[in-house]
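Predict fold of DNA-binding transcriptional regulator, MarR family; 162 aa.
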Amino acid sequence: MSNDFKPLELEGFLPYRLNVLAETVSQSLAGIYRRRYAISVPEWRIMATLGQFGTMTAKDIGAHSHMHKTKVSRAVASLEHRDLLRRTANTRDMRESFLQLTEKGMDAYRKLVPEAHRFIEALIAPIDPAEKQVFNRVLKQLVQRATELSAELDGPDAPAEG
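Predicted 3D structure, encoded as tokens:
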């Protein structure tokens, strides 16, 4: 073992810190829609995606919201069971369905969106406007660079999984 070896300090490790931030913010915001509609984080992400884009497939929702297909499937079933979401078969491909919010789902979405906006405004209120711009730019750069690194690591020379 080299004398240069430094153990990784998790609390200072950027991926860990970003995950803690994302999870903390997500769970804090979840309190709003959990109290009012008993909606989970994956269910809210589906409602938010459908509220923004209208009709989509579960696969498209998963890609947009970065959720695994199993989480999407469970959340869709729950929302459908509570009449917040409607599923319509795709007549061109019976393996998939088109999903959209029901009127009850849209009503919940319209009531929750202003609360979500207020929560985010309260969260970022202490941050100087110039710092917000820098923060948003840095977030965008980190997502772009992580995507590039992932593509490089998954390139043609990547070792096979298994």
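The beta strands are 56-57, 85-89, 97-101.
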